[in-house]
Amino acid sequence: MRLLALLLAAVAFVPAAGAGGGAFLTPNQLSNHADPSLLRVSGGVLVAYDIESTGSVDVLDTGGTTHTVVTGWPAVSDPQLVRKPDGTIFLYFGGSTPDLKTQGALRFASIDGGVSWSGPVKTNKASTIGDVQASGVRRDGTPIFSQDGTGFLNVYQGDNGATLHNAFSPCCGYDESLAVDTSGLAQVAFWSNATSKPGYLYEILDDSGAPLGAPVVLSAGTDAQALPGTNRLPLVADGGGNTFMAWPGTKHVTIAALGAGKLRRKFAIATAGAPNQIALAVEPDGAKLWVVWIQGKYLWATRFRDAAHGAAPIVVRTPLPADRTAYALEAVGLAGQVQAVVNVSGTPANTLWRQQLIPGLAAHAARKPKPSVKVRDDTAPVKGATIRGAGKVAHTNAKGVASLKGFRRHARVKVTKAGYVATSFRVP
Predict the structure, then answer these.
(1) Which residues sit opposite 136 in a β-bridge?
(2) Whole-Å CA distances, 288 to 64, 137, 148
(3) Is the pLDDT of residue 155 over 80?
(4) CA atoms lying within 13 Å on the CB side of residue 82
(5) What is the full DSSP assignment across 263-327?
(6) pLDDT tens figures, 62-85
(7) CB of 122 within 8 A of CB of 160?
(8) Which residues contact 410 (CB under 8 A, 6 or more apart)?
(9) Which H or E element spans position 3?
(10) Residue 2: pLDDT band by 50, 70, 90 thresholds?
(11) Chain segment 377-401, per-residue pLDDT in tens
(12) Buried b (16+ CB within 10 A) or exposed e, 325-359
C-alpha cells in the first residue's frame, strides 16, 4: 500500500466564476435520502426518483414531463435506470405492490423513451424491497444491478437478475457504484465500515458478476473521510479503457485512475473544505471526465481531458439554492457540459434541483519575451478566445496564445469564449 500513497499527487486549484440557471424539478415531497437515477438518452437526460410519502416512483423525461410509474404502493425505494442496445429502458427499484403479492427488486420497461412503462416483473427471489443502489450494462446488453445491507452487497445479473453473487459478505459494504469498461470488465466500488476491511474499496467482477479476488482499499495513504457523507462512491468508465473511482477527503476529492482492473495513478483536487457529496461523469465522446462535488454553499466541478495520464484542472462553481441543505448528488456528462441533480431540503419535504455547468478557462500572462497571454482548457490550448480590456481586443491563435501588445500594463482584462466560463487577469 506504500506504493499507492506515493502515487498521490495534488492538482492545482484554479477557481473560476460559476454557472447559473438552476431549476427545481419536483414538488417538495421527497425524503432527504432519496437518491435520483440519471440516464443520458437522445435529446437529454431521464431522471427517476421515488416519493416515499405517496408510494410513488416517477420518471422525468427529456422534455420536462413527469410520468408516474407507480403510486400508492406500501413500499418503494431508490430506483436505477439502464438502457439496452435496442433502446429499451429498464427501471429497477425495491418495492411491494398494493396487494403485497409481488415484493423485492422489481423491473419495469419502456420502449418509448420513458413515457410509458410496463411491469412490474419480479427479479431474483432473494432480492429485497431496499434501494437498488447501482446499475450498469454489459457489452452484450446484459444488465447488472445491486442492493446492499448488513452482511451483503448483492450483485444481480440478467434482465431479471437471475444470477446473484454477494460481492462483500463482511459487515458492511455500502454506497456502491457499478461500471463496465470498454473491454467488458465489470467493477464495483463501495465504502465499508467492516472491522476486517474498512475504507473505500474497489473490486473486479467476473463474467457472472461474482467477485474476482479480494477487494482493494484504494483510499490508503489519502486524507479519506472516516465516515463519508456521500450517497454514492462514484465509479465510471470512459471510452478509452479507463475506469475512475473517487472518494471524499478532509480537504480533497481523490480520484483513482484504473485500467484493466489495475491502479495506474491517484491524484487529488484541493477543496475549500471537506466535500460532503461527490459524483463523476463522462461526456458522450467518452474522453472528458467531470468531477462534481458539494462543499459549503456551492456546487463545484472540474473537467479533465486526459485524467488517466495528467491534468491541470480549472474549477468552476455555482451557488446552491439559498437556505437549502444538500443531500444526494448525481451527475451525467453531456457534450461540453455536466448536468448535476441534487436532493435539497425544502418545506414540507425535500426536492430535486438541477444545474448545468460548463468548463472554465485559465489564462497565464507573461511580459517577456513579448507581452502575451496563453489560454487553456485543462491541458489544451484554446483557439479563438477573446481577450478584451482597456479598449483593446485580441484573439488567441491555434496555440492558445494572444499578443498583449498595446494593452495597458496592469489593466484588468477579461477572457471569454462561447461554451466556457470566463476568466480575467491583469496585464503584466
Answers:
(1) 144
(2) 26, 20, 30
(3) yes
(4) 27
(5) EEEEEEEE-SS--SEEEEEE-TTS--EEEEEEETTEEEEEEES-TTT-----EEEEEPPTT--EE
(6) 999 999 999 999 999 999 999 999
(7) yes
(8) 426, 427
(9) helix 2-6
(10) very low
(11) 998 999 999 999 989 999 999 999 9
(12) ebbbbbbbbbebbbbbbbbbbbeebbbbbbbbbbb
pTM over 0.85: yes
pLDDT digits over 288-343, tens only?
Answer: 999 999 999 999 999 999 898 877 889 999 999 999 999 999 999 999 999 999 99
Q: Domain ranges in the chain?
A: 2-357, 362-426
Residue with cell 460532503: 276
Return mean pLDDT, the chain. Answer: 94
Q: Which residue carries 482548457 as its cell?
A: 377
Q: Would you state the cell numbers that stand for residue 420, as one nine-digit string?
A: 466556457
Measured distance CA(98)–CA(73) in Å, rounded: 5
Taking only the tens place, the pLDDT of each residue in 29-43 is 999 999 999 999 999
DSSP annotation of 350 reads: B
120 CB-near residues (< 8 Å, 6+ apart): 70, 95, 97, 102, 106, 107, 108
The cell 432519496 sits on which residue?
34
Share of the chain above pLDDT 70, in %: 95
Q: What is the pLDDT of residue 21?
A: 72
**DSSP classification of residue 40:** E
Q: What is the SS3 assignment for 18?
A: coil
Q: What is the dihedral of CA 339, 344, 350, 356, to 10 degrees?
A: -20
Residue 9 CB contacts under 8 Å (≥ 6 apart), including other chains: 265, 266, 267, 268
Tell me how crowded residue 123 is: count the other CB atoms within 10 A of its CB.
24
Report whether CATH 2.60.40.420 matches the domain 2-357: no
Helix (H, G, I), strand (E, B) or coil at 6: helix
Q: Which grid cell is 65?
A: 414531463
Residue 348 grid coordinates: 414540507
Residue type, 320: L
